[in-house]
Amino acid sequence: MGWAEIIHARPALPAALGAELEPYPYLSGFGLVHRVTRLATPLPSQVTSTLGFRNRQVTDVLLATQTPTQARSTFLRRLHLQDTNMAAYWNPQQWSPVQTGDLFGRRPRPLRQCPQCAAHGYHCALFQLPSITHCPWHRQPLEHTCPHCDAPYHARFDDHARLGVCACGHDPFDAVVASVHMWDFPTDKAQDWLEDYQAWAQRRRAGRWICVPTNCTAWDQGFAALAAPPARLQRTDTDTPLVIEIFSGPSADPAPRHFWGWSCWGGERPLTLAPLPATMYPLLCEATKAVVDALPPESRTPFELVDANALEASATLRENVFLRPDCFIKPRDQSGSAMWLNLSTVDAHIAAFCGHVLDQATAHLGAPGGSVLASYSLQAARSTAMDQIRGRGHLADALAKILTRAYAYGLHADLGVKLDASIPRAAWPILEMVGGSGRLRAIRLNWIEQKSPVATVRVERRGERPASRPLLM
Ligand SMILES: [Zn+2]
Ligand SMILES: [Zn+2]
């Protein structure tokens, strides 16, 4: 469907100044509100309430227009555009080469715009994708902060009911360009590029899903790496690209019930003792040794850990761990293929993320017939559903990597606090699943390092001594 068809049901004459659609292919909801309110002749404040933005001081126009909200349908009706299909392109998901779930709706995000397009009041929901770094037709880098004062651009009205004006006064919108010169916009070039890109993204996202931990806000870089368009559509930046670890290829699927242990993960509650496949045991022992080896060799054994982990107080930490590399995971008896391990150093959000990834896998790749599973417990249902997915070994390998890294980070941070040593930067996993019905073809994984320093808080768990551990931002 081309742009002409999408806007076919528009009125013959635009209902308001700024509502001209022909020059501006795939104009976003934000772009339309921006143009109409900035070109409005009566007081802008009257226009915003007429258009359905009553609570305009707090309304994020990107969020309010990307999903079918009350404000969006009022706005479309007032402009007599309710019968067009243009709003289908207002959600960044519609431009993403990977299915994003609620990712773009979780919280307001900075507006990303091209300064030359912004002079017209033009914005496309495509620009909100971190994987799009330049305006495809002006070739200018997209900006998400003000070039004068560096404040993040946001999609809210200011005190004068204006959109797109920075608090410092910077305003890329130009009323003359946006009205008299609207036909100078590179309409054909933009439309060709967008339709070419849209066809690529649509094909690709059919079998791809991205998973981001719920409290991770700085996922832009990870998304940009996983969703980068091919070179023919956008030349890649010279910045060092993020490393994407790929789990794919032929591999034997793990035995049934391999995911039994993982299947009870997913609550926001931290897991102190958790069941895991026994294959995790050697990985976590190796990680423990690597963390302790990275500390100064003479590091003492923190006295807080001596009793809780049955360590030798007079020996160094390295000596203790050399003799008992499993001292922090305290393995309990194995039941079936699952082994109970102490994972109190693993960040609760990453633990929850592992459970959510399983849910995503069974929701998108699981065999139809969920009703059969309805009689099982949640854990049994998840585990049984996972056993029916071919290629699930890729997910088992990726989860093992994620957990090992999260464990090592948590342990390093915990020991760092107790020994007054340095604490590494935390990192979030960003994961993409590739597959189709009943089959997982690959997992693509990368990690986003946190930029801000890690704050430490004390958390107390039932039956445990209070312990310092990092709070992930
Ligand atoms: Zn542009
Ligand atoms: Zn500014």
Bound molecules: zinc ion
The biggest beta sheet reads:
4 strands, antiparallel
Relative helix content? 25-40%
Integer count of domains: 2
Q: Any idea what the shape is?
A: elongated
Strands ordered across the widest β-sheet: 1-6-7-2
Number of helices: 16
Number of strands: 9
Stretches where pLDDT is under 50 for at least 5 consecutive residues are 453-473
Radius of gyration: 26 Å
- First-to-last CA distance: 43 Å
Mean pLDDT: 87
Task: Give a summary of the structure in a few sentences.
Helices cover 34% and strands 11% of the residues. The protein is α+β, with helices and mostly antiparallel strands and 473 residues long. Helix 10 (280-293) runs antiparallel to helix 12, helix 10 (280-293) packs parallel to helix 16 and helix 13 (348-365) runs antiparallel to helix 16.
